[in-house]
Specification:
Length: 364
């Protein structure tokens, strides 16, 4: 802070120096002898020439729409032009970000953490409180509440009260609601000997609690501030609890949404897709970690690959559950007996796996 005050004093001294020069010139002009003034008056056309030059300079300055034309292409619409889409393994969050940014993700049951940075070294720099170079970053943590309630403004205040002393609030908090969701955000500034960092906390609450921390170093604000804000604006969260999911042994009323909360619900969705010949949501039924077998993967690939759709319809349109689901003692896998085939009389068992509270096709 002493450096800031010192900077202000320097600027004040410079302003005083600039203000003193004209006064000295006026005093000198007042002491000049009148005779010299008269004799000097003859070459007076020169100032006129100077004025003409000034006019010429002014006329030359007319073509300066160029800076205006350069400033016209506002970066805001173009900032996301080359963004790519990130989707977590459990299909519960999507966002868009620049392809050259570094991304890390950490996924646990009911919780996802995402870190984005303008380059690989930014994370270490920010953690070390080094704000000396241009940098942008976004850190997001999303957590399912499993029936609990959260207030966005209250969550924001909890974060702000734990801020380091080197940070201070900038402006007022913004609180709003949209489509039944609560939002709260606050911008803060951190400063130390290395420089400054501008950070915005954004909290979203629904059936989940999401906190996004987006920021730039002060020297990187012009370069990265629009980008970090665009990343946060692109966030879509799908971690909703399916409170009105259909009963385990009933098919969904339409081809979607899928009841991922029960193993039989997922298998019923397979039969429903074959009966209605609607394949788009099959891609979401397989193990998001990709550990499922080739047969189940063939089912999920039907969303894009038309090659095996005819045989899929022939074998699964008449399919039905043939007994209760057998869930393992640890609750992480299940086996569901079912009938399928052209006549619906071939016995088979589908194995499913539980990931992050949802069931997915694993093998059969």
């Amino acid at each position: 802070m002493k450096r800031i005050y010192f900077g202000l004093i320097v600027w004040a001294m410079m302003a005083a120096a600039c203000g003193g020069a004209p006064e000295e010139a006026a005093t000198t002009a007042g002491d000049a002898p009148p005779a010299e003034t008269a004799s000097t008056a003859a070459p007076a056309p020169e100032p006129t020439a100077t004025a003409a030059a000034t006019a010429t300079a002014t006329a030359t300055a007319v073509p300066t729409p160029e800076p205006t034309a350069t400033a016209a292409p506002t970066a805001t619409p173009d900032v996301t032009a080359d963004f790519i889409t990130f989707r977590d393994a459990f299909q519960q969050i999507t966002l868009r970000y620049p392809p050259d940014w570094a991304l890390e993700q950490e996924t646990n049951p009911g919780r996802i953490r995402i870190t984005l940075a303008s380059d690989e070294g930014v994370k270490e720099d920010i953690e070390d409180d080094d704000f000396s170079r241009p940098a942008g970053f976004v850190v997001g943590e999303i957590e399912l509440l499993f029936g609990e309630e959260a207030n966005a403004e209250q969550v924001l205040q909890e974060f702000l009260t734990s801020m380091p002393e080197t940070f201070s609030l900038t402006g007022e908090p913004v609180i709003w609601e949209q489509e039944g969701m609560q939002f709260a955000s606050q911008t803060v500034e951190g400063r130390n000997e290395s420089g400054a960092v501008l950070v915005t906390f954004t909290v979203m609450t629904d059936e989940y609690q999401a906190v996004f921390v987006s920021g730039t170093t002060a020297v990187g604000a012009d370069q990265y501030q629009d980008i970090t804000q665009a990343i946060v604006d692109s966030v879509e969260i799908h971690m909703r609890l399916e409170q009105n999911a259909p009963p385990p042994d009933e098919s969904p009323a339409s081809a979607g949404p899928v009841n991922f909360l029960t193993p039989t619900g997922v298998l019923q969705a397979v039969f429903q897709a074959a009966q209605m010949e609607q394949y788009s949501y099959l891609a979401d039924l397989c193990d998001p970690l990709g550990e499922n077998d080739r047969d189940t993967q063939m089912i999920c690939d039907l969303a894009e690959d038309e090659t095996n759709r005819a045989s899929f319809v022939a074998y699964f349109a008449a399919g039905k559950i043939d007994g209760e689901a057998r869930i393992s003692p640890d609750g992480n896998t299940a086996e569901v007996p079912f009938l399928f085939g052209p006549d619906g009389n071939q016995k088979e068992t589908m194995k499913l796996i539980k990931r992050n509270g949802r069931w997915y096709l694993f093998e059969f």
